[in-house]
Amino acid sequence: MATRMSDRGSDTFGPVRLVEIQLEQPISGFPPPDPDQPHNQALVLVRLHDEPLASLHLDIPPEGLSGARVAEAIWQACEEPIRAHLATDDLPPVSEITTTGIPSEEPRCQRQRESFLQDAPAVTIIIPTRERPERLRTCVESILGSAYPLDRIRVIIADNAPTSERTRALADELSVATAGRVSYVREDARGSASARNRGLASVDTEVVAMTDDDVVVDRYWLTEITRAFAGNPAAGAVSGLLWPSELETPAQLWFEQYGGFGRGFERRLFDLRANRPPDEPFYPWNAGLFGTGNNFSFRTAALRDIGGFDPALGNGTPALGGVDSEVLLRTILCGYQIVYEPRAVAYHAHRADYEGLRRQVYAYGAGLVAYYLKTVLADPRFALDFGRKLPAGIRWMLSPESHINKHKREDYPSELVWIERKGMVYGPLAYMRSRRRYGPHRVYRQRRRANKT
């Protein structure tokens, strides 16, 4: 039997310093690690003109790391995306990076962004929450403090099965401070899906963005979401890059190895027929391929057209998880496109304790099978496609090169693998229990009837 891992790795683990480097600014080095909290490694998010280009891991030696060595490492790891970005901006190419960075005045990408913001569309952000007002405040303030025009922002706080008035009090305070830009709705049915659906009923903007109360958004998050919809008329959903806000514990680092929430730095367009990823034999059934519920958005009409969120899936329900992946899969299966836009950046606070990670991984396993079962039962065509691709999908899920495995290192606890599989075994029963509680979600059948009339 696997051993409990709550203390494992404490002798070898070192916290990872998270750093963002804007290449148009001077590049600094890293000081020697603090003996009391030794950050011997750094995870660097490399950006140029605010666009995230790549990431790289750096070891920080006892004497520290000079700016020149950091610049050299960035060039070695990121030469190709740097050259591509400069070419797109019609800026002169560079053959190296020095500590002075890459000076450029008014690059084209920034002019385009600022031009878009002159007539930015109104957008609503729904945040489901439950009894975490401190984190919620930080999340909302990051949205209201972004570069997006404040008069184009509406925030809906969806309070899920509250046990106190703390969240309502915070919402009232923020509403007064923002002249009504923040509103409050209450949903007593347990589950983030029910809370989001309650918020969705109040949305009157073309685009609705979603995030969670443990997230802080980048200043251009809303800008890049709405630009992605404007540039892709057939898109029903847009997902973005979710970056860790800290890696201070083994559990947080193991979650990143598990797959985290990051989906890379390449902009991608998904739909059911065209734009099929050649390296994804299980498409479109790949769990998490399209994005994450901490950072995704929808055309409001499209989300309503496909039936909103399934109340029987996700945290707070017997199914435990699966709601975010299911709604994105349903978006594809209903004929809409999904855009993955890495310029829409948000920052997530991973669970710091191992017990919390164990519960999370178990829930992901249960939710995965629950939403697969829900989908294949909805339409025989889906069942046939799923069954035909399942053998390749199993090989893909077990392959060390798949996106869910390739980041796992030798210190990744084998117990977590078995906990996820245990959750998968529970998945069918979890779904049946949840379906019994919340009732059917007949979206595919309803859409077929609507198409015939």
Account of the 3D structure:
This protein is an alpha/beta fold. The chain has two domains: 16-115, no CATH class; 120-452, Spore Coat Polysaccharide Biosynthesis Protein SpsA, Chain A (Alpha-Beta Complex), CATH 3.90.550.10. It has helices spanning 67-88, 108-117, 133-144, 166-177, 192-200, 221-231, 250-258, 300-305, 323-333, 354-378, 380-398, 414-438, 443-452, and strands spanning 16-22, 41-48, 51-59, 123-129, 153-160, 182-187, 207-210, 215-217, 235-244, 268-270, 296-299, 337-348. Strands 4, 5, 6, 7, 8, 9, 10, 11 and 12 form a nine-stranded mixed β-sheet that branches. A three-stranded mixed β-sheet has the order 1-2-3, covered by helices on one side. β2 (41-48) and β3 (51-59) form a beta hairpin. The longest helix is centred in the C-terminal third of the chain and has 25 residues, at 354-378. The chain is globular, with a radius of gyration of 22 Å. The termini are far apart.
Write the layout of secondary structure elements.
Layout: E1 16-22, E2 41-48, E3 51-59, H1 67-88, H2 108-117, E4 123-129, H3 133-144, E5 153-160, H4 166-177, E6 182-187, H5 192-200, E7 207-210, E8 215-217, H6 221-231, E9 235-244, H7 250-258, E10 268-270, E11 296-299, H8 300-305, H9 323-333, E12 337-348, H10 354-378, H11 380-398, H12 414-438, H13 443-452
Parallel strand pairs: 1-2, 4-5, 4-7, 5-6, 9-12
Antiparallel strand pairs: 2-3, 7-11, 8-12, 9-11, 10-12
Helix pairs in contact: 9-10, 10-11, 10-12
